[in-house]
Each structure stands twice: as structure tokens, then as C-alpha cells.
Amino acid sequence: MAASDVVLSGLGIVIAFTMSLNLLGLIYRPLQFYGKFLLCFLSMCTCASYGFFASILLSLIGKKGLSQWTAGRAFTTLTCPLIGLKIDMKNEEILRKTRPAIIIANHQSELDVLLLGRIFPKYCSVTAKSSLKYVPFLGWFMMISGTVFIDRQNRGKAIKALDGAINAMKKNNQCVFMFPEGTRSYFTQPDMLSFKRGAFHLAIQSGFPIIPVVISNYSHVFNFRKRILQAGTIDIQVLDPVTTEGLSSEDVDDLVETTRIKMLKVLKEISPKAAKEPTSDVEADDTTLLSASGTANGSDLVGTIDDDDVLEPRITRDTDASEISAALSESATEETDLTPDVSKVIELDNRN
Hints:
This protein is of the alpha/beta class. 49% of the residues lie in helices and 11% in strands. It has twelve helices and nine strands. The chain has helices at residues 3-24, 29-60, 67-83, 93-97, 112-119, 138-144, 155-172, 198-206, 252-270, 273-276, 281-292, 321-338; strands at 85-90, 102-105, 124-129, 148-150, 175-178, 210-215, 222-223, 228-229, 232-238. α1 (3-24) runs antiparallel to α2 (29-60) and α3 (67-83) crosses α5. The relative contact order is 0.14.
């Protein structure tokens, strides 16, 4: 039997199994959850493979900056109809008109990677842990599409990568996307974790504006703890750019706080009414457990583009090497004190 026949047969079996789970889910809802979750995973692998070859072609014609945009759009376009998800996005023109910039958004769950496919403007790349470049499908695509990889174990390489990111943004007039919360919140009500400062330091160092993007609370659509993945609408709103011109490292804390307050206000306004109601003590305990839990088995398979991956270097135009080293040391301490690294994209979570 030819290799292609084996692949097609295997794919057919997986598709049949997935559809069976969805049908049985009409009787027992958790089965539908796993069926849709598997569809998302298969779609992600398919679109990452497409993105890999698209990146090669786009690089040849001098359009490499479109690589992550085209793969993200393909992922969202293919997956949303399969799981019955609708995304309503307001003020999208801000993302198209403002380049270069640091784009930030609130981070709720594994489903965010699907939403990124809708948020991403053209000429935008992400940051990620360097280990992800070796992951099949997604890692291959990320390597060739211009992802900014950060080696969190090597300060020198991390600083060099950040400098390279700023230079690339200036040269190619492109944006970088980050999650300032640093990990998934899993909140069932409109709220956000405290922001880490890496994205804001990077914006001040480069002089580029920050574009906040607010994703409504969608726990009514996706809730891993309750095994919910159902049809619904998620609202996304792009806020006005926040300028960083004339700011220094001394202004970082104020910039972080004012930006978070603006985003939280909009988050509460655009989230569904059901999500605004206080959660029970049991649900709150479950959320806390999820947010504070350690890395699950297989957790390094796929990583998100979290702000803690940038290592929060307190870099300004006048910062010397000793200050950079001290900043990196401090950021490592902050990461340990705040939350363990549980940031993943789409993974079969086995924490239960």
C-alpha cells in the first residue's frame, strides 16, 4: 500500500471518529466537546502545514510578512464553521492603519489561538519560546514565517532576539503580538490577570504605540473544566493606539495600569450578560486551580505567544548591559512568583 493511501485511510478514520463523537454528543454533551476539540486540533495541524508552504512561496516573492496572517485567516475560516463559532470584530481598521505597533490582548484559554487568526493584521508576527521551533507542523511553520523566538534560558540570546525584533519591525514596518497576562486566566466572568510589563518595555524601547485588543468573556462558548464547546458569538473590540513617545522606563508602571484599566472597562461592557454575573465559590476555586496549576503532561508541545516569553527586559535607549542583566534576573523572579508556565495553544489537557 502506498504511503499516500495509508495517510488518506488514517485521515478518513480520524474524521469518521470525530464525526461520531459529534453525533453522540447530541445525547451526551461531553462527547461533542471532545469531537469539536479534535476538529480544532486537526484543523490547526492542517493550516500550520498550509502556512509552512505558503511561507516559502511568500518569502520567494518578498511577502514573508503575510505568512502568519494568511495561515491565521485560513485557520479561522476553516474552523469556525465546523464548531459553530461567530466572531464579531469592531474597529478592525485601527490594526490595518497602525504599523509598526505592539498588539496586546487578554488571554482566556486555548481557544484564543483560533481568535488570533481573526485578529492578526497583515505584516504581524508573534513571540514564542525557542523550544517551539522543533514542534512538528506548528513549529515548522513558526520558524519559516518570521516568529520571534526567545531563549528564556540564555539572557544574551534573549536580548539579541529582542533587538532583532525591533530592527525587523522598523525595517519591515510590521507589528508584534503579545499576551500581557502571561498565561491563560480561565475566568468565567469578565476579568483579567495582572499584566506583566514586557510588552510595555518593548514598546517604550522602540517608541512604537501599543494597540489593545479586548476579547469578550466567552466561557459560555468554551469552558474546558465543564467540557463545553458550543456554538456562539464572541465579540472583539480594538481600542485606540496608546502612544509611547517621550516615555521612559520610569513610566512603565503607569502605562501598564492605565492600559489594563481601559481594557477591563471595555471587557465588562462587551461580555455577555451571563458572564457578568458573579461565579459561585466552587467555580472560583476551580478557576484558581486551573490558573495556578503546574505544567501538564505534554505541555511543551505547543506554546502561545505569551508576554512572559519576552522576559520583561527593562530596556531603554540609554540602558547599559548591567541594567539589562538585572532586569532579566528580576523578570525570572516575577515569573516564579506569579504563575507557572501553563501557556499552551491547543492541547489535550489532562489535568483532571
